[in-house]
Structure formats: C-alpha cells, structure tokens
Design a protein that fits this description.
The complex is a heterodimer of chains A (123) and B (106). By secondary structure, chain A is mainly β. Chain A contains no helices and 11 strands. Classes of the chains: A mainly beta (123), B mainly beta (106). Chain A binds chain B through residues 46-49, 52, 60-63, 96, 103-105, 107-116, and chain B through 1, 31-32, 34, 36, 38, 43-46, 49-50, 53, 55, 87, 89, 91, 94-101.
C-alpha cells in the first residue's frame, strides 16, 4: 500500500520560512518514472502545482514561486522536504504531498495524494 | 505556462443524469490530460489519465475523451457519491497546471 503524509507547522508568521515534510511508504523514489511533488489549495480555490522531484533528482518548480521554493529528498528515510521562504497570507492553504506516477509514453499523473495539511500564514 | 479552462464552473444535476464537463488547453497537449475528483474536505483522486484511460478502481460510469486542446469528462449515470468538484490537469509540460474546477451539485 502506498501512503504519503504531510507534516509541518499549522501557523506561520509572514516573512518566515515554511518547511513541510512528506513521509512516504510503499514505493521508492529511486524507481524510474517516479516522482514526489507538492500541490496546494487556498481555501475555496483551485489546485496549484508547486514543485516536483523526480527519481533522477531532476527538480521542477512553479515559475512564479521558483525563487522561494526548494524541494529535496532523503531516500534513505523516505522523506521529501519542501521549503518556502518569505511566506505571506496568500500562501495560506492546504498543502498536499503527491506521488507522480508514469504510465505509458511519459503520461504522468498524481496518485495517490496525502491527506493534506492546512497551513495558515498570519501574524 | 499552459492555461486550462473548464466549463461550466458549476453544474446542477440529479441522480441518474448524464453529465459532461469540458476542459480546454491554451495549446495542444496531445492526450496529456488527467481528471481528478475532489470530495469536500478530502484530497483529490485521479479518475482518468492520458485523456481516456480509467484509473484502476474507478467506476466505469466515468469516461474521458479528447486530444489536442479539447477534452471531456462524462459521467454516464450520476450517483449520490459523485457530487464533488472535478479538475482537469495537463501533464504535457511543467509547470503542470489545473483547471479552475467544476462543482457538481444536486
């Protein structure tokens, strides 16, 4: 069974750095075609892809947030960490950790998703 | 960045209805299109990948079609558990982008 679980602070002050950890099991990030990513959802709004790390350590970021995001992996402990610097109230939302699965011909999709963790940015 | 536009934004329907949701990409994405269902308070789940492939464990009343820029998600006979928000997502290139969502209501 594949599971992912997010952990981190529920409340962060503006200008601080947010660090979220995804702990996963049931798969290896060393397997070709696999990735782990982060997607967020502001309250009542749509999903927004943030970052992704692939099995070969290739990293991709949302361009508008690229200067503020860093994604890293710790394969020995099955963790992926996302850091976001200089947070603001607009960064409030539920943050999901996801596994990227590759089907045929490089068709990627996100499955499964973690339960999500609500992060509030407020002073 | 590829923009994804869904229509309608919300839809009222009844149990047993056939429903179609449309997703349009701002450029051709071949068949690199996925559909997700999000029940309120829960994480999304993938329904369809690569435009028309039903994810394992998903009910056969869900189907997807399309290629290039225009795609559809069809629910052949709505069940009570289908009332949720549906998102399309392109996997053609990063940044991966989602549609704004279609809320399916009774």
């Amino acid at each position: 069974q594949i599971t992912l679980k997010e952990s981190g602070p529920t409340l962060v002050k503006p200008t601080q750095t947010l660090t979220l950890t995804c702990t996963f099991s049931g798969f290896s990030l060393s397997t070709s075609g696999v990735g782990v990513g982060w997607i967020r959802q502001p309250p009542g709004k749509a999903l927004e892809w943030l970052a992704l790390i692939f099995w070969d350590d290739d990293k991709r970021y949302r361009p508008s947030l690229k200067t503020r995001l860093t994604i890293t992996q710790d394969t020995s402990k099955s963790h992926v960490v996302l850091t976001m610097t200089n947070v603001a109230p607009v960064d409030t939302g539920t943050y999901y950790c996801v596994r990227l699965h590759t089907a045929y011909e490089e068709h990627h999709f996100f499955d499964p998703w973690g339960q999500g963790t609500l992060v509030t940015v407020s002073s | 960045e590829i923009q994804m536009t869904q229509s309608p934004s919300s839809l009222s329907a009844s149990v047993g209805d056939r429903v179609t949701i449309t997703c349009r990409a701002s450029q051709s994405i071949s068949s690199y299109l996925n559909w997700y269902q999000q029940i309120p308070g829960k994480a999304p789940n993938v329904l369809i990948y690569a435009a028309s492939n039903l994810q394992s464990g998903v009910a056969s009343r869900f189907s997807g079609s399309g290629s290039g820029t225009d795609f559809t998600l069809t629910i052949s006979s709505l069940q009570p558990e289908d009332f949720a928000t549906y998102y399309c997502q392109q996997s053609y290139s990063t940044p991966y982008t989602f549609g704004q969502g279609t809320k399916l209501e009774i």
